[in-house]
Amino acid sequence: MRILDEAVIPELPNYYRGKVRENYDLPDGNRIIISTDRLSAFDRILTCIPYKGQVLTQTARYWFELTKDICPNHVVEYPDPNVVIGKRLEILPVEVVVRGYLAGTTGTSILTLYKKGERQMYGMSLPDGMKDNQVLPEPVITPTSKAFDGGHDEPLTPSEIVEKKLLTQEQWNVLSHYALALFKRGQEIAARQGLILVDTKYEFGTDENGTIILADEIHTPDSSRYWMADSYEESFRNGTRPASFDKDFVRAWVAERCDPYKDEVPEIPQDLVLQTSKVYIDAYERITGQSFVPDDSGETPLARVRRNLERFFPGV
User: Fold this and answer.
1) Band of residue 123 on the pLDDT scale cut at 50, 70, 90
2) Closest among 187, 188, 197, 250 to 224, alpha carbons compared
3) Pfam families from the entry (predicted)?
4) What angle do CA 166, 172, 175 make, to 5 degrees?
């Protein structure tokens, strides 16, 4: 099975390992970001999903290209299907989620809060009588504090963001304008593919001049929720969950068999891993309208990545 489980390359400088990405800071102010196939959940790595890293990198590439007229992004180049060279940024301490529907399962989602009886949240008001998965009158931003220390994200209002000096008022104005414009573009393009972009997460940073720049990823299956447009209305009428790219086979399988935060995780069946891989590939093709081209060369994924990054080795 062709997987990129790690991408430790000793010749590259300033290594930093994330949950699913390997990062190397270059002396020119750029950063090498390698997306591995690791699947992270429950604060641990569960397994590796073939082609997951390539799908996420190439889906983000598709969207970065289609939105660069709206907002500057961190992309410098793509030397490999799993790799982006990006500008090194100072990441802003606010995570920006844009939502177009009353949906979500996390503790900070508007549906979770709505079901608890809250109607005032994130500096906005929602009316009584709304149903699960109902379209909102207009997309809304639900910002949270970004927990760099591993803590929990906390909901914020725009006024709290400024009062707590997380962002200046000017930064918030720019960032919120970008986020809503990006989401609008995303929904329009997704609709052409028969998809609904339900909600998504954006991460922004600033460069050495203080310019706000879109970082990380955009509109990928991991950062976004998509529904199938052709079945949404019927699902909504029936009160059932809309059809989506359900990638949580592995997560659900593990949760049914142990306490994943405490217990040793049992070995995950390969058919489940391959099923999840197919979902990622299908998501790429449905979102972009392009055929997924896997690397079927004789090289291992790591050997290919190394070869494509050799020119960044010191002294080369």
Assistant:
1) confident
2) 197
3) SAICAR_synt
4) 115
Beta pairing partners, 35: 21
Q: For residue range 151-163, what is the model confidence (pLDDT) as tens digits?
A: 567 889 999 999 9
The CATH homologous superfamily for domain 91-236 is ATP-grasp fold, B domain (3.30.470.20)
The CATH architecture one would assign to domain 13-87+269-310 is: 2-Layer Sandwich (3.30)
Alpha helices in 116-245 (DSSP H): 158-163, 169-192, 229-238
Distance, in Å, from the CA atom of 28 to the CA atom of 83, rounded to the nearest integer, reads: 17
Give residue 152's pLDDT: 61
Asked if domains 13-87+269-310 and 91-236 share a fold, the reply is: no
**CA neighbor of 94 nearest in space, from 184, 172, 34, 18:** 172
Cα-to-chain-centroid distance, residue 117: 29
Torsion of CA 90, 93, 99, 103, to 10 degrees: 130
pLDDT interval class at 108 (50, 70, 90): confident
Is residue 101 a contact partner of residue 135, using CB atoms and an 8 Å limit?
yes
The residue behind tokens 């991991």 is 222
- Which residue in the block uniquely carries the two structure tokens 């990441």? 91
Can you tell me which residue has the tokens 């955009």?
218
Extended beta strands in the chain, E state: 15-17, 21-25, 30-35, 38-41, 44-48, 75-80, 83-87, 90-91, 94-101, 120-121, 124-125, 135-141, 144-145, 195-206, 212-215, 224-228
State the Cα–Cα distance between residues 93 and 71, nearest whole angstrom.
19
Token output for 127: 């009316």
Which tokens belong to 209? 């001049």
> Which helix (H) or strand (E) is 60 found in, with range?
helix 52-67
CA angle 159, 214, 78 (to 5 degrees): 165
Distance CA 143, CA 308 (A): 37
What value does the mean pLDDT take over residues 133-152?
82
